[in-house]
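In this supplementary section we document a worked example of the pipeline. Step one takes a protein sequence of length 252 as its only input; no multiple sequence alignment statistics are reported here. Step two produces a three-dimensional model, which step three serialises into structure tokens for compact storage. The input and output of this example are shown verbatim.
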Amino acid sequence: MHINVVCVCGVEVKSVSVTEGDSVTLESALAEIQSKDMIMWRFGPQDFLLAKISRDDNKGENFGDVTDEKSRDRLKLDNQTGSLTITNSRISDSGLYTVSSRTKGDTPLHTFNLTVYAHLPVPVLIITSSQSSSSVQYCSVLCSVVNVSTVSLSWYKGNSVLNSTSVSDLSISLSLPLEIDCLDDSYSCVVNNPISNQTTHLNLCQPCLDCICCYGSTEAGIRLALSAVVAVATVAVLFCDIRSRSHQKRVN
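The serialised model returned by step three reads:
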């Protein structure tokens, strides 16, 4: 969970970021709910009453107009402090949350801007072509991720960024091509959002043979294995052919 504090129009807003499925607790800023007090949590620009809790007449907690049973089951209120916990967070939980106290005239004690990010996919690498120029071989590699939003996709050589692209709101597929010198160092493709990242490494085989790029995938392993089998079979055929010709000469 990541927390940042900013001021908007004189109001302190805490930015809280989590990954989908994580639990997040929004603190009420109270050590203990006082007698006759009521703590209220509101959500969204329309101040939808999300939850409230009171020690008055042992009324306990109440989840306002939340009619969705699954959503209600994911909300927990601390009986002592009134802090709100959201379990199994969803993308739809993103938004503004305010907590207020009845004894303080409903003035917000805290305002939170919660952002729930989706889990990031692992980048997929596809070798699209190979070519030679002046005795130097190249691979054209495409790095892709699908169904992403608010992410950046970047190619790295070591710790240096070679190129990058990003998307903000829409859930789309994102691709980034790169032409790589086969005899050069290792590369990696990274997809990241403000709180997490996923990386796929591309390690080039030495010596470079027909621009085969290896990145730990089953496909690359199969290609190398087949190449080895073909090479062994070729040697075996040649050896058998030589022995056969030698035998025929002795017979004649």
